[in-house]
Amino acid sequence: MIRIFATELKLNLKSLLIWSLAVGGVGLACILLYQTMAEDMKEMAGAFSDMGAFSDAFGMSTMSIATLPGYFATEVGTCHGLGSGMFAAILAIGILSKEEEGHTGEFLYSLPVSRQKIVAAKGGCVLVSLMMFTIICALMYRAGCVLVGEELPVKEFCTFMGREFIMNLEIAAVCFFVSSVSRKNRMGLGIGIAMFTYVYDLIGRVVPSAGDYLFIGPYSYANAPEIFAGKAAKGEALVVAVAVTLVAAVASFICHGRRDLAG
Amino acid sequence: MSKAIEIAHLCKNYGRHRGIIDVSFEVEKGDIFGFIGPNGAGKSTTIRSMLGFLRIDSGSIRILGMDSEREQEEILKRVGYMPSEAWFYPSMRVRDVIRYAADVRGMDCREEAERICSILKVDTTKRIRELSLGNRKKVSIVCAMQHRPKLFIFDEPTSGLDPLIQKRFFDLIDGYVAAGATCLLSTHVLSEVNRYCRHAAIMREGRLTMLDSPDIDDEAFLKFYEEEEVLS
């Protein structure tokens, strides 16, 4: 099982590096731009915070983008949330189904390892890849702060990265389940799941009546402006996240173990 | 226990598509058993059921005395399987694929793998995506043989292999069988059945018929396929 896990990690390494360097790189670039934009930001901050639903949706009514924490939360928070969600979805939705789509399943499943162990090895690979992704991005954001000579509040920054990781896990778990019952790599569906949950959160923050159900979506507890403003996440949002992740993971084991494998 | 394979009343249905119907047969240890039949007759479904890839609807499968559903991992430790489509991870090198298969089995198969690679002339430095079908098949043969299994299951193993490699492949099988292994050979090639198999069965329309002898002439062999066409 360890060998399958290690090989899977190696096969996904290139994708992990591309995504983490791309998402982390965009965040780093945003932070580096902060200094050159800081003066202009001060003038624009008032206007941005007063744009009604648009300001609410992107958290600019919660924090001032003239400060680094506010700028980071609105700009980098959006990029990281969307990028990491897409990476989690793409990684997880193909990891089991690629074996049948690529006809490698007959090789893998003829080795003396149970399907449950294969699911566990591949699930472990998703988990570790997302951890590595989060760490690489966090290091790049930290490097950006050092380069511009500014500091982000450590507690809020760690909370943000941790919640993003949990959000990534939730999206990945749902996509992992889709992968466990699918014979084709449903990458489009994976991106769709990530985009839908992001837009659901965006709409929930703009439309007052939809706000009551915001906690169902994974982006609700990973909202950067709220985290950097010191607002606590709703308990029910985290309960839903844990429940969805566990149910999807268990269902993946059960469904993949029972189904016929394509040739 | 002298049976390597014991299949009784095996049924597998794919909903609207016919699978296999009431298939029963046994293969003695040390046998080379020919498994012939037209495309879509149910040969691969039978093999895939034996390996636990498919959930069977009814019947029972015992491999090397073990139940195919409850003891699948133990069975796979003792089986060398070569699928008809030999696919591996395209970015991996041949030597890494061979090593990977051995590592997952928890075995050091380097010596045997090197021996088979030299017999079959396998270039272990190439990446899988650079290989032709024939060369991928050779890698598949190494993966199926390197752990010296008790039972070989080959699904159309020689398609894509040149005549010299085909001969060497059967020489290897003869060697393993002489040392106590058993071989189930699914094939469309009559000469392979005549020359190498000791017993044979034919599958048509999901049903299996044991043949009195694997020595079949061309006309009788083609008749099996023509009858399938008439039936369908």
How many domain modules of chain B? 2
How many β-strands of chain B, per DSSP? 10
- Evaluate the radius of gyration of chain A: 20 Å
Domain count of chain A: 1
3D shape of chain A: elongated
The residue-averaged pLDDT of chain A reads 89
What structural category do the secondary elements of chain A indicate? Answer: mainly alpha
Q: What is the gyration radius of chain B calculated from CA atoms?
A: 17 Å
> What's the CATH architecture of the largest domain in chain B?
3-Layer(aba) Sandwich
Sequence of strands across the biggest β-sheet of chain B: 6-7-8-3-9-10
How many beta-strand segments of chain A?
A: 0
Helix percent of chain A reads over 70%
For the largest interface, the chains and their residue counts are:
A-B, 21 and 30 residues
Write down the overall mean pLDDT of chain B: 89
- N-to-C SSE series of chain B? EEEHEEHEHHHEHEHEEH
Structural class of chain B: alpha/beta
| Range of strand content of chain A | under 5%
Q: Distance between termini of chain B?
A: 40 Å
Pick out the low-confidence regions of chain A.
none
How does this model look, in words?
- The complex is a heterodimer of chains A (263) and B (232).
- Chain A is an all-alpha fold and 263 residues long.
- Chain A has one domain.
- In chain A, 75% of the residues lie in helices and 0% in strands.
- Chain A has eleven helices and no strands.
- The longest helix of chain A is centred in the first third of the chain and has 36 residues, at 13-48.
- Chain B contains eight helices and ten strands.
- Chain B has helices spanning 43-50, 72-77, 94-104, 110-120, 133-145, 163-178, 190-196, 218-231; strands at residues 3-14, 17-28, 32-36, 58-63, 66-67, 79-82, 151-155, 182-187, 199-204, 207-210.
- In chain B, helix 6 links the parallel strand 7 (151-155) and strand 8 (182-187).
- In chain B, helix 4 packs antiparallel against helix 5 (133-145).
- The longest helix of chain B has 16 residues, at 163-178.
- The model of chain B has no long low-confidence stretch (mean pLDDT 89).
- Classes of the chains: A mainly alpha (263), B alpha/beta (232).
- Chains A and B meet through helix 1 and helix 6 of A and helix 2 and helix 3 of B.
